[in-house]
Amino acid sequence: MFSKKKFIQLVVIVFLLINIAALIAAGRGGGKIQGFGAFGLDLFGPVEHVLSKITGSVEKIWMNYFSLVRLSSENNELLEEIKQFHSKETLYKEVVLENERLRRLLKFSKKIKPEYIAAEVVGRDSVKWFNTIIINRGKDSGVDLNCPVIVPEGVVGQVIKVSRNYSKVLLITDRMSGVDCLVQVSRGRGVVSGTGSEICIFKYILRKFDIQVGDNVVTSGMDGIFPKGLRVGEVTRVSKKDSGIFQDVDVKPFVDFEKLEEVLIILNLPDERKDG
Known about the structure:
By secondary structure, the chain is of the alpha+beta class. The protein has two domains: 1-111; 117-275, Rod shape-determining protein MreC, domain 1 (Thrombin, subunit H, Beta Barrel). The chain is built from three helices and twelve strands; from the N terminus they run ααββββββββββββα. The protein has helices spanning 4-28, 35-109, 271-275; strands at 116-124, 132-135, 148-151, 154-162, 167-171, 178-183, 189-193, 200-206, 216-219, 231-239, 246-253, 262-266. The strands form two sheets. The protein has a six-stranded antiparallel barrel with strand order 1-2-5-4-3-12. Helix 1 crosses helix 2. The longest helix has 75 residues, at 35-109. The radius of gyration is 43 Å and the shape is elongated.
């Protein structure tokens, strides 16, 4: 007994043989097909038509598939090129910005009479109640305790710790900081102290001085640390109490301490410090 699978195979073989015979008969008979050839053509013509369409569709599918694979590969290559381009563009922008900052430092440094050296900010104090930064210059570069640290915008702070290659700088916004300053217009003198925030307090300003919001505050040069005339900040609030000899003055530093990346360290001491 034939199994179902063998029976189907036999039928397919018979149909193929009939189709081949019909094609041979058609080839010998010239243009007009009759008899067995015509019967085979009528029988297998529709089948070949369907098979031809299926074959064509499969071929198109394969062509589309290979085309998609090629496009996917090209797309991945383009994406990689775009990533490399963005990486180079970002690096280029960083170099441009760094050059701009260094040019500003160089231009500003020409106005400074004392000897100075540039440094990069490489760290910040993680403790919130201390406002300090770490710079990559130390004793080997001539940095010493109390050296003033500045940028073109204004005073940053002073060195409080030094190793061979690094230094810790106390910012003027720290509560332990105090810079002897004066108001540029009225010449009222006092001490700018940090509060731990972006606003400093201008202490010991006598009531007799006419201080206005917007007045510039600069270093007085009287503390033996900072040279005279360095920018410190701008007056943002003035309050005179009913009693007392001093007035309350708030000052906002010119320096944006969150954006510090490079600084200048003044190395040689002012005359007042040398005498002391």
